[in-house]
């Protein structure tokens, strides 16, 4: 599969990195776009530079290049995941405000009826956040809150990250063994 991964400035960049690594290890083609604030959070939370990040993906796009391939409905992506997704980005997509490449690519995914997975990490959420997520869900996006479960008895932070990334992979139809399933 060809999957576009977007990373915004919400906390939780580790989820995006782990998803990218999991997809690549499973043999999928990963195209990525990172917002300006996403770069700042990637560096702060994970110590990952643009150069190091570029080595993890097949194609890295400049978020300011609104004419990049992923901005077009003719680009044949199989799905798009925005992880983590800031409330600013969720609101922009919910209201079809395509003011950068990431929001344009998400808008394209919706209009082309391709899977769009939104992983919000904000907490708590107020009514406008919830309304925007509902609007996205009604438009066809899948909302996967960054809320890992505990029934698999996680022992490490990595176990919690893997639980959420596994849930994203489940929605993409990507086989994995990131967590023990409920028996």
TrEMBL record:
InterPro entries: Flavin_trans-like, Flavoprotein, UbiX-like. It catalyses: dimethylallyl phosphate + FMNH2 = prenylated FMNH2 + phosphate. Keywords: Flavoprotein, FMN, Prenyltransferase, Transferase. FMN binds at residues 9-11, 35, 86-89, 121. Pfam families: Flavoprotein (PF02441). Gene3D superfamilies: Flavin prenyltransferase-like. The keyword Transferase applies. GO terms for molecular function: carboxy-lyase activity; flavin prenyltransferase activity. Its EC number is 2.5.1.129. Residues 1-172 form the Flavoprotein domain. It comes from the Bacteria. Dimethylallyl phosphate binds at residues 151, 167. Flavin prenyltransferase that catalyzes the synthesis of the prenylated FMN cofactor (prenyl-FMN) for 4-hydroxy-3-polyprenylbenzoic acid decarboxylase UbiD. The prenyltransferase is metal-independent and links a dimethylallyl moiety from dimethylallyl monophosphate (DMAP) to the flavin N5 and C6 atoms of FMN. Belongs to the UbiX/PAD1 family. This is Flavin prenyltransferase UbiX.
């Amino acid at each position: 599969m060809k999957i576009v991964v977007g990373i915004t400035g919400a906390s939780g960049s580790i989820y995006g990195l782990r998803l990218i690594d999991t997809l690549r290890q499973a043999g999928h083609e990963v195209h990525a776009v990172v917002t300006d604030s996403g770069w700042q959070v990637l560096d702060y939370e994970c110590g990952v530079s643009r150069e190091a990040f570029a080595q993890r993906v097949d194609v890295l796009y400049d978020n300011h290049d609104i004419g990049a391939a992923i901005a077009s409905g003719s680009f044949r992506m199989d799905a798009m995941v925005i992880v983590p997704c800031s409330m600013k980005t969720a609101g922009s997509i919910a209201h079809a405000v395509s003011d950068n490449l990431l929001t344009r690519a998400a808008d394209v995914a919706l209009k082309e009826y391709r899977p769009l997975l939104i992983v919000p990490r904000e907490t708590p959420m107020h009514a406008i956040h919830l309304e925007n997520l509902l609007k996205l869900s009604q438009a066809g996006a899948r909302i996967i809150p960054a809320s890992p479960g505990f029934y698999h008895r996680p022992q490490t932070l990595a176990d919690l990250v893997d639980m959420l990334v596994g849930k994203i992979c489940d929605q993409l139809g990507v086989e994995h063994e990131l967590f023990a399933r409920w028996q």
